[in-house]
Structure formats: structure tokens, C-alpha cells
Amino acid sequence: MCAAAGRHTLSFDLGDNVHAVILAEGEGVRLRPLTETTPKPLLKVAGIPLIQYTIELFEQHGIKDIIICTSYKREMIREALGDGSRLGVKLRYSESEQPSGTGGALKKAAWMLEPGEKFFVANSDEIKDIDLYAMRRLHEDNKAYATMALTRVDDVSHFGMARMDGWRIREFVEKPKGSLGGGLINAGLYLFEPRVIDFIPNYGRPMLEKVVFPRLARAGRLAGFPFPGRWIAINTLEQYQAAERMIRS
């Protein structure tokens, strides 16, 4: 159940050593003019800042220590969210002067993670309804280095698409062109083993989607976790308006 619709009642959590990283560096260019004055993670959907949906998803699963990677209007994000106590979590910040790519941002924040422990990573611009317990079980049962949450859409041409072989993602195609119909796409939430950091280059602005996931797939270490819950992408003004209607309804 997503944060806006209600909260889970949980009798256990994912463990004190499980951390989460939220990637929130982007400028949200396709959401201008809204993002000219407000960073994308703070845009409100049904009265709640977009990033708060992801924070609450982690908090509902017992993940209390969350690192937020920021760049664009980072001072506004820190001021709005503070130390996280209002949301029942501990928030820490990894800040960059310029966006460093999803992989680069994660690598920069790696020193803040619990040594030797797996961790979740999520984009900040989607609303997700995912059972993180089930995702962790699949990840551990298959000894994956990384597990990607997957959702099904009718048109994969605007998303990163996964081609599966059982539980394993054998190929990851970033935003395939042409009319390919429906399929499983990257839902922007992952569970990583610490060794995944070593797959991220130390130069440029590496993207998880373009650099890390294809390498993991070729190594046979990238698992896919299809989930049936709600997933809402918010990348354009049209998607933002649709998300507002959907959550309020």
C-alpha cells in the first residue's frame, strides 16, 4: 500500500543494519516551469512532497537510516526534510555541486553506508507500492548482486526494459526505440550488495541504467522482482497531473 493510501502494520522489519539511498540530484527539466522554483522531490502530489512517498515506503518496512543524494536546489531539500525526525526516520545527505549521475551519486555516498551490508536504492520521482520483504527474499534466495524491482507497462519505448530468463535479467535495454508493445520495466528501486559499488566507474557521470545494470546482467548477477503493486512515474507535467488525480481518487 502506498503512503498516501495508508500504512502497513508490521511486526518485524528488515534489520537495523539495512540502509537506503534515495537519488534526488536531478533538475526535473521536463517538469518546468514547476521545477524552476521547487526541486522535483519537493513537488507535492495530493499535498505530500513526492520524495516523502519513498521515505515512508522505507519507514514502513523498518528502514530508518536513509541517505538522500542531492544537487539541484539541495538547500531547499535539506531545509524541507531536516533530519527526518518528523517522518520517524534519520535522514543524512550526500550533496554535490553538480549532478554526478545515478551511479556517481551512489558511489559518492557509499562511505555513509553500513560496511558489508546490503542496501536499498530508490529514485525520488516515482510513487511505488512494493513489498520489500518479498524483494529481499528473492534477492537472497538467488544470491544476486543486485535485484531490480520491475513493473509491467503497455508501452516500453520510454523506459528501461528487462528481458528475463527465470528470475534473472539476461538483458537490460535502456529506453528501446520503436513500437515494442508491453513488457517489464525498471521501476526505480533496487537492492544491492556492497560489491555493486565496484561496478561503478570512478570517472564521468556514470548511470546505473547504462553502465552498471548491463554489466551485472552480462555477469548473470542481476535479478528481477516483478511486483503487482501501484507504480506511478512522474517525469512530465502530464504525468504529474495524472498522478495528482490518481492519488486523490
Helical percentage:
25-40%
Could you spell the SSE succession in H and E letters?
Answer: EHEEHEHEHEEHEEEEHEEH
Say which CATH homologous superfamily is assigned: Spore Coat Polysaccharide Biosynthesis Protein SpsA, Chain A
Name the CATH architecture. Alpha-Beta Complex
How many DSSP H or I helices? 7
* Terminal residue distance: 14 Å
Number of strands: 13
CATH topology: Spore Coat Polysaccharide Biosynthesis Protein SpsA, Chain A
Largest sheet features: 7 strands, mixed
Which spans of ≥5 residues are poorly predicted at pLDDT below 50? 1-12
Write out the strand line-up for the largest beta sheet, numbering strands in chain order: 5-4-1-6-11-8-12
CATH class: Alpha Beta
Task: Give the strand content.
Answer: 25-35%
Q: What radius of gyration results from the CA coordinates? A: 17 Å
Oligomer: single chain
Class inferred from helices and paired strands:
alpha/beta
How many discrete domains? 1
Structure commentary:
The structure is a single chain. The chain has 249 residues and is an alpha/beta fold. It has helices spanning 34-37, 50-60, 74-81, 101-109, 132-141, 208-218, 237-248; strands at 19-24, 44-45, 48-49, 65-70, 90-95, 119-123, 126-128, 146-153, 160-165, 168-174, 183-192, 222-226, 231-233. The strands form four sheets. The protein has a seven-stranded mixed sheet with strand order 5-4-1-6-11-8-12, sandwiched between helices. Strand 9 and strand 10 form a beta hairpin. Helix 4 (101-109) crosses helix 6 (208-218). The chain is globular and about 45 Å long. Residues 1-12 have low confidence and may be disordered.
